[in-house]
Amino acid sequence: MKQLTDNLNQLFADFAKDAALQVEAGNKAAGTRARKSSLAIEKALKEFRKKSIELSK
Q1: What is the DSSP letter of 5?
Q2: I need a labelling partner for 44 at 20 to 30 A (CA). Which of 1, 16, 21, 54 fits?
Q3: d(CA 14, CA 37)
Q4: Are the beta carbons of 22 and 33 closer than 8 angstroms?
Q5: What is the pLDDT of residue 15?
Q6: What is the pLDDT of residues 1-57, one digit of tens each?
Q7: 27: left (phi > 0), else alpha (psi -120 to 50), else beta?
């Protein structure tokens, strides 16, 4: 669970950095990376939810 939350924190940091580059500098490649990160975040959050439910039983 700790590894999963660490991974989520890293994914959020990567997303925030790339999203800011796209918004502030108009960097199209950063926008692509941000969209890719958002999909990885979605997947990791689903895994977190699954693990969290298992631990709460």
Answers
A1: H
A2: 21
A3: 7
A4: no
A5: 97
A6: 899 999 999 999 999 999 999 999 999 999 999 999 999 999 999 999 999 999 988
A7: beta
Residue with tokens 């990791």: 44
Would you give the end-to-end CA distance of the chain in angstroms? 15
DSSP 40: H
Query: What are 21's two structure tokens?
Result: 């580059």
56 CB-near residues (< 8 Å, 6+ apart)? none
The pTM of the full predicted model, rounded to 2 decimals, is 0.86
If you compute the radius of gyration of the chain from its CA atoms, what whole number of angstroms results?
A: 14
Q: CA dihedral in degrees (45, 50, 51, 56; nearest 10)?
A: 120
pLDDT in the model for residue 57: 83
